[in-house]
């Protein structure tokens, strides 16, 4: 079956099936750290969108043993990470699809996208699924435009803490395992679902409109933690004042004992290595960056991976907003610094609104996107600019968007000239002039 017929995104080929949508995932998992063994049973509530003789789920590196639809055993094949279930789709008839599976989970590898997904730590696990790693731990319809709610339970040995991109709903011990349960009631794309397992202590951090907590190993100094991650409540309150209510029930930061090269984004939860417990601006800006993704990326999510600038450009701009709020710098100083740095880099290989899979996480996407945001702000003025963003985020809360949808929103809220101002930033390779205030 061709990628086109199943609706896969060209940036992440052979993932996802557009012929149906998943409304809910119920995942019952058991994990043994010794031997890296995962046993799972996933029940998906699926809504067919077209008629088809079969459909596909994504599951990589794990073995499906049995598949049931509506409680009845089904024939299936599993090849190259695609689980084909030989049951017809009929619009209007929801399907309960249950998959029993097991194996030794590991990252999904892609020549163009690198690795993503389930990864063992020295003493625990992280899941960094963006953009194609979700099938490393559960069968799913791995498309960013297919959001669903979740119930997740995970059994692990005593002494370990589990964090999931959802709200805790209890723990229970049975024998030599503790089962942690979570629910995610806000629809979530597959790549933002995560599991973190480690020997963590929980630090509650008051002062935000919603509960904020940090999970950290005992080796992390409490004073250093307070000087860095203790600023999260103030960051959250600041961004909520600019962009509207925080879109989830709580926010969690997980700090692994291991050092990590970059932080990891997921819905309602971000993961950092112990090396980010550092008061240097490089760490603080990334704490702000990941938190801002809860609005730009996790609540309002791209439909297509080519529109990644809608996540990263705004999150980068939020770094600059926090730099100004916290007295580190000013937004305009950051704009001028990073425009100057971009001027020294090649431009002819990058179109911001469609950078290609190899460049979708290139730093130029982040910085050029943030510069485009600032150009729009200077054109509109602060009152109209932040009102436009609040309207955008409110209108598409828990939904999916494209660059064209953002431009249409800008036209409706601010006029054709505002949308036209963005077009060279988005669709031309040449770098526009540095956005500066008119009085400058």
Automatic annotation (TrEMBL):
Its EC number is 3.4.11.2. The lineage of its organism: Bacteria, Bacillati, Actinomycetota, Actinomycetes, Micrococcales. It is an enzyme of class 3 (hydrolase). Pfam families: Peptidase_M1 (PF01433), Peptidase_M1_N (PF17900). One of its GO terms (biological process) is proteolysis. It catalyses: Release of an N-terminal amino acid, Xaa-|-Yaa- from a peptide, amide or arylamide. Xaa is preferably Ala, but may be most amino acids including Pro (slow action). When a terminal hydrophobic residue is followed by a prolyl residue, the two may be released as an intact Xaa-Pro dipeptide. GO terms for molecular function: alanyl aminopeptidase activity; metallopeptidase activity; zinc ion binding. Residues 24-192 form the Aminopeptidase N-like N-terminal domain. This is Aminopeptidase N. Its cofactor is Zn(2+). Residues 235-425 form the Peptidase M1 membrane alanine aminopeptidase domain. Keywords: Hydrolase, Metal-binding, Metalloprotease, Protease, Zinc. Belongs to the peptidase M1 family.
């Amino acid at each position: 079956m061709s990628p086109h017929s199943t609706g896969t995104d060209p940036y992440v080929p052979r993932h996802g099936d557009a012929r149906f949508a998943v409304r809910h995932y119920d995942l019952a998992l058991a994990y043994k750290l010794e031997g890296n063994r995962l046993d799972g049973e996933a029940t998906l509530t699926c809504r067919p969108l077209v008629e088809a003789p079969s459909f596909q789920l994504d599951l990589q590196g794990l073995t499906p043993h049995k598949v049931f639809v509506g409680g009845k055993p089904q024939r299936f094949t599993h090849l190259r990470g695609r689980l084909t279930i030989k049951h017809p789709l009929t619009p209007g008839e929801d399907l309960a699809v249950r998959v029993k599976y097991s194996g030794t989970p590991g990252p999904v590898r892609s020549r163009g996208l690198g690795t993503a997904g389930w990864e063992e730590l020295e003493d625990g696990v992280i899941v960094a699924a963006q953009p194609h790693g979700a099938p490393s731990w559960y069968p799913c319809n791995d498309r960013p435009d297919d959001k669903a709610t979740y119930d997740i339970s995970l059994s692990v040995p005593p002494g370990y803490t589990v964090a999931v991109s959802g709200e805790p709903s209890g723990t229970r011990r049975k024998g030599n395992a503790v089962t942690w349960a979570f629910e995610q009631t806000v629809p979530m794309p597959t790549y933002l679902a995560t599991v973190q397992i480690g020997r963590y202590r929980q630090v509650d951090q008051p002062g935000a409109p919603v509960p904020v907590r940090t999970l950290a190993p005992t080796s992390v100094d409490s004073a250093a933690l307070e000087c860095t991650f203790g600023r999260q409540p103030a960051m959250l309150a600041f961004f909520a004042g600019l962009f509207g209510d925080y879109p989830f029930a709580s926010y969690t930061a997980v700090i692994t004992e291991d050092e990590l090269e970059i932080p990891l984004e997921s819905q309602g939860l971000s993961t950092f290595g112990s090396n980010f417990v550092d008061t240097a601006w490089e760490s603080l800006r990334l704490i702000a960056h990941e938190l801002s993704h809860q609005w730009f990326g996790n609540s309002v999510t791209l439909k297509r991976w080519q529109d990644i600038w809608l996540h990263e450009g705004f999150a980068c701009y939020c770094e600059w907003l926090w730099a100004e709020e916290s007295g580190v710098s000013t937004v305009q100083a950051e704009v001028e610094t990073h425009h100057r740095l971009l001027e020294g880099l090649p431009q002819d290989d990058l179109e911001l609104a469609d950078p290609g899979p190899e460049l979708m996480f290139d730093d130029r996407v982040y910085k050029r996107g943030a510069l485009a945001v600032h150009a729009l702000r200077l054109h509109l003025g602060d009152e109209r600019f932040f009102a436009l963003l609040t309207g955008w985020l409110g209108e598409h809360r828990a939904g999916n968007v494209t660059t064209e949808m953002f431009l249409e929103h800008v036209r409706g809220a601010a006029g054709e000239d505002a949308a036209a101002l963005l077009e060279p930033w988005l669709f031309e390779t040449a770098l526009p002039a540095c956005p500066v205030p008119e009085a400058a």
